[in-house]
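The methods section describes the discrete structure representation at length, but only in general terms. Each protein is reduced to its one-letter sequence and a matching series of backbone shape codes. I believe one specimen quoted in the main text would settle the matter. An entry of this sort, consisting of the sequence and the corresponding backbone structure tokens, reads as follows.
***
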Amino acid sequence: MNFENYLKDAKTWLHELCNYLGIEDEQKAARIFRAVLHAIRDRIPTGEAIHLGAQIPVLWKGIYYDGFSMHEPVRIRHEDEWLEYIRSKDSGAAESDFPTLDHAFYAFQDVMTFLRDHLSEGQYEQIAQAIHSEITVPA
């Protein structure tokens, strides 16, 4: 096990994510990423959630799987409800990270674009389809 490589991979993703989000604050970027990942994980079927987890760096896997359980996907049909759900996953920092639904919307869009560029095409498409047709997902 090469923990230095795991740390390097996680930091590389974090630095790139900051660019996608257009922010320099790595702690804020990490909180946003965690909130969106947890919302996606809870929204998609368990099998898809596990496949997604397999494609992210090891240290991010730990964050991704924190609080994970076998589940029925959370039923969300409307975009505002989805954005509120993302905000609820931000562990008390939602007011600073997502002060409005617009902030949550743009963070979700940026994270999804980041994932599209870092996951296999098939995995990204499965996630995008599982979220819901009423929720805007970058193509």
